[in-house]
């Protein structure tokens, strides 16, 4: 289809998460129909990102600078570290604007099934920060999964070893806008357990 | 989120058809997590495509060579030209392997609403080919829409002016694997009208 260059572009686009073969063809056509204004600018944005973006040596997020914009922002509260599994989780929190502290990106969870142990998690820089005594609170914002809970539990113990720090977890319960009959049983139990005076 | 380079990459990915903001972020993360093996190769495939891919001066498809691989293939039947609206339609027919002739990509349909007239369609090279007397049959494989039918009708008349050539249209009816009660009324009418001896 359209020679090797087109075919190769389609195949590589189809490997992107969220794009299948059909949408990859549509995307390739859209890009190829405007090579100067769409295809080349995207290619250049990718090259620039590949050249400039690195992993922050403090928190583990992706940014054009190291330390990242968040870790080097004096306006943020460096005494409150929010621990998340992935960079995507960090982005979600940043979009909500709810967290004005800093982060630690683990890069995953402990998982016996996937063979991920403590040595596979990005925690050294978190423990260093806690040891240095600058951290008041560590918010464990991990997924509400078995692996997330296991990791939070393990990390809670690990933090207690290295220094006096308050560890908290995000609340579980009914999503805002949700209705009771749409909730799964696990969330229902969590929501009832976390009940507070009205 | 992650500095200007990351943000810019996400925004440009989000403009691809089929990708929204959320999937664009997922795609950006997947690419950035493997800059050498995923991000840069995709960027380079895009630059190569932008540099090499052009519109075939004979049929109007996109290819790395001009004339394209189909138009310059001596094994194909250059006496049968299949007229399609878009390059995507040509790709669909090529995947099916049903057409062993050549193509003409109109680049759209006539549309009073969108202000597209005959001068906006890529037909000159088709009329030239018919005039040259090398074309036996023109298959009008246009969309089963009002605009597709209008364009097919107009093109049929136009072809009759320039040379003796058989113009045919693709059959309309029930899709293979389809069931009667899933068909819209227009397709039902077309399927009944196109009935043949069993």
From TrEMBL, chains A, B:
Alphabetized GO MF terms: DNA binding; zinc ion binding
Keywords attached to this entry: DNA damage, DNA recombination, DNA repair, Metal-binding, Zinc, Zinc-finger
Zn finger residue spans: C4-type: 56-71
Domain Toprim: 79-175
Gene Ontology annotations of biological process type: DNA recombination; DNA repair
Record has Transcription regulation as a keyword: no
UniProt similarity note: Belongs to the RecR family.
Protein name: Recombination protein RecR
Top-level taxonomy: Bacteria, Pseudomonadati, Pseudomonadota, Alphaproteobacteria, Acetobacterales
